[in-house]
Design a protein that fits this description.
The complex is a heterodimer of chains A (240) and B (389).
Chain A (H helix, E strand, L loop, with lengths): L1 E5 L5 E5 L10 H8 L2 E8 L1 H4 L1 E2 L9 E2 L5 H12 L4 E8 L5 H14 L4 E5 L2 H5 L4 H17 L3 E5 L5 H6 L3 H10 L5 E4 L1 H10 L13 H24 L3
Parallel strand pairs in A: 3-6, 3-7, 7-8, 8-9
Antiparallel strand pairs in A: 1-2, 4-5
Chain B lengths: L11 H17 L19 H62 L2 H7 L2 H5 L1 H9 L10 H15 L6 H18 L15 H16 L8 H22 L12 H7 L8 H17 L13 H8 L1 H21 L3 H27 L27
Classes of the chains: A alpha/beta (240), B mainly alpha (389).
Chain lengths: 240, 389
């Protein structure tokens, strides 16, 4: 069953139920929503921190932290649950691997109490050909730390692109993400499948968009991803 | 004019498969090219890189193995280093060409993702240092990581060449380094602090296996059928993993065997053991099924692949450049006519470069063919022609 979410003006992104339905429960998020206050930590590489492209000139870099998908997720959450106070902290950086993010995660969890951790990873590891088993142990350590800190973990996998599909063997990394998530309090948001669907439907295709439409399309992508994640999180926090 | 090198002892299977690997490298690296869905990587646990490296080792073994006995270590090692230098210069030239092509396209078309994807963004972040790091092979943009591997493998070969007098020693030495990599993950360091995309310390093992197949002919095993069955099992397993399990990792949930899990979580950087076993199984079956003197290898149908396989360096370099042009074409329009167009463009372009390189090699030479060397009793027949492909 498809139901379509309207996003950013006239465009629409398909959100098939199975892709925005969490397979695992998010109990800490549910408890926080009941208290009307949810603190979120988003950890990831370029797409999470809203940093794409080089820093080789002002006309060249796309640097829009406030427009990244975690912020858009909060906007969508706020619209869906107006009575709840949502707070988000974004950490990470372009080209940052999970191994580098792990100490940041530990530090954040030690300094502050979050109920939800979004961890976007896998792309940098795959592009650099890092060992999938290293990613697995890093994510397992991270998942344990999140669990100990009484928070839920949503892992976000790579974003679809024809370039990635052609040049990078993603499947070992996808398998790892699949393996380390699952069970109460830890789940996988399948961004790859969702963004691939949008490309296939001709809804959002960054690799085929014309020059003048590019920034608008990045914005639309972030809005759609944010909305999908918001639905995913709320669904995971609802009663089964 | 005979552009293809034939001789009684030249193993055209090697040229053919090297040509095929070059073609796969072209189609595999163009985002959205439909032919990329039909190359080796879609059906096996290994891909064109393994074919390329194994045959590079085989080619090096053919070219320099005999020289060791004839001219001694110093002279032969010097020849290997000269070849490594040629590859290094080709790599640097390709780096400049590819960088110019990608950065210009990225700015002209406002596609920042080109820079990120090819990892050329650091060129903008730190232009003064990146050129030096490129010369040191510590800065390797995407697609430009195979030649640096090849250069290091040849330097490794130059250093270890003397061990060819004791092939078992070379094999053991190489195996120990490979196992060490598998255990410790040791790798050459690149500029960004990560390891090389293709860890030379791991991939040298496949290269050395290629060298030994050429220089230290093995006796045929006592029970070749046993090997046939084992190789077939490995290949079938690879097909299952790549076509059934990898596209749907959640299927692992109902496959209880943890062996499958370990097959799926593989790394290319450190030449995951199953990748290695997969390419060796494919090699074994190719040698068993395709006879050295198979008529089709000399037919006009296989001639294009044999020709580009015999001129692999210029064809490889041009293939990278053509591939990026093809990508721009597909991004402009990816319907059937453009798909046909970019693949034809690549095929004709690579063939033209191969033919030109072959023509340069033969022009001005006397027309009488040189006598064929006698066949060595090898598993894979050897010849003594220098490998300049």
């Amino acid at each position: 069953m498809l139901h379509t979410a309207r996003a950013a003006g006239d465009a629409a992104c398909d959100m098939p139920t199975d892709l925005i339905t969490s397979s695992d429960r998010l109990p800490h998020v549910a408890a926080a929503l009941a208290r009307n206050s949810l603190d979120i930590l988003a950890l990831g590489s370029g797409s999470t921190v809203g940093d794409a492209g080089g820093t080789s000139g002002p006309a060249f870099a796309f640097h829009a932290p406030e427009a990244s998908f975690p912020h858009k997720m909060v906007d969508a959450l706020q619209a869906m649950r107006p009575g709840v106070r949502f707070q988000i902290t974004v950490r990470g950086g372009r080209n940052m691997a999970a191994e580098t993010m792990l100490p940041i995660l530990r530090q954040e969890l030690a300094d502050h109490h979050y109920e939800l951790v979004l961890w976007q990873t896998g792309t940098v590891e795959a592009v650099h050909g890092m060992r999938p088993d290293t990613l697995r142990s890093v994510l397992q350590d991270g998942a344990e730390a999140v669990e100990k800190a009484s928070a839920d973990l949503v892992v976000v996998d790579p974003q679809f692109s024809r370039f990635l599909r052609a040049n990078v063997d993603l499947s070992p990394y996808e398998t790892v993400l699949q393996q380390v998530t699952g069970g109460s309090g830890s789940t996988l948001f399948r961004r790859f499948d969702l963004t691939q669907l949008w490309v296939a439907n001709g809804q959002i295709d960054l690799e085929r968009v014309s020059r003048d439409q590019r920034d608008r399309t990045i914005g639309l992508l972030n809005t759609c991803l944010g909305e999908a994640l918001a639905r995913f999180v709320l669904e995971g926090a609802s009663e089964p | 004019m005979q552009l293809i090198r034939h001789s009684g002892a030249r193993d055209l299977r090697v040229d053919f498969f090297r040509g095929l690997a070059l073609w796969w490298i072209y189609t595999d690296h163009i985002p959205g090219d439909v032919l990329g869905d039909f190359s080796l990587r879609n059906f096996a646990m290994s891909d064109a890189t393994e074919v390329f490296v194994l045959l590079a080792g085989y080619g090096a073994g053919l070219s320099y193995g005999m020289g060791l006995g004839r001219n001694g270590y110093i002279s032969t090692a010097a020849d290997v280093m000269k070849r490594a230098w040629t590859l290094y210069v080709a790599h640097i030239f390709l780096f400049v060409l590819f960088t110019a092509q990608v950065t210009y396209s990225a700015t002209a078309l406002n596609r920042l993702n080109y820079l990120e994807e090819t990892r050329l963004d650091v060129l903008g972040d730190d232009p003064y240092r990146s050129i030096l790091e490129a010369l040191l092979l510590r800065f390797q943009p995407s697609l430009l990581n195979i030649l640096p591997l090849y250069v290091v493998l040849l330097v490794f070969f130059a250093v270890t060449l003397w061990m060819l007098r004791w092939p078992r020693l070379l094999f053991l030495f190489s195996l120990v380094i490979y196992l060490m990599v598998r255990v410790t993950k040791i790798n050459l360091i690149s500029w960004d602090g990560d390891g090389w995309f293709f860890d030379p310390l791991a991939w040298q093992f496949l290269f050395v296996i290629g060298v030994l197949l050429a220089c230290a002919p093995m006796r045929a095993p006592k029970w070749p059928r046993l090997f046939d069955v084992a190789a077939a099992i490995v290949i079938v397993l690879g097909v299952i993993v790549t076509t059934v399990i990898e596209p749907h990792p959640n299927r692992l949930e109902w496959v209880s065997a943890s062996a499958f899990r370990s097959l799926v979580v593989e790394d290319k950087t450190g030449l995951y053991p199953f990748r290695l076993i997969s390419i060796l199984a494919l090699t074994w079956l190719c040698v068993r099924v395709i006879r050295f003197d198979a008529a089709w290898l000399r037919s006009r149908w296989s001639a294009p692949l044999v020709l580009i396989g015999q001129n692999s360096l210029p064809v490889f370099c041009s293939g990278i450049v053509f591939g990026f042009v093809a990508r721009l074409g597909l991004e402009y329009d990816d319907h059937a006519p453009m798909q046909v167009g970019i693949n034809l463009f690549g095929a004709v372009g690579m063939l033209a470069v191969g033919a030109l390189a072959a023509w340069y090699r033969i022009k001005g030479r006397p027309k009488t063919p040189r006598p064929a060397p006698t066949l060595a009793p090898a598993l894979l027949p050897v010849n003594a022609q220098p490998d300049t492909g």
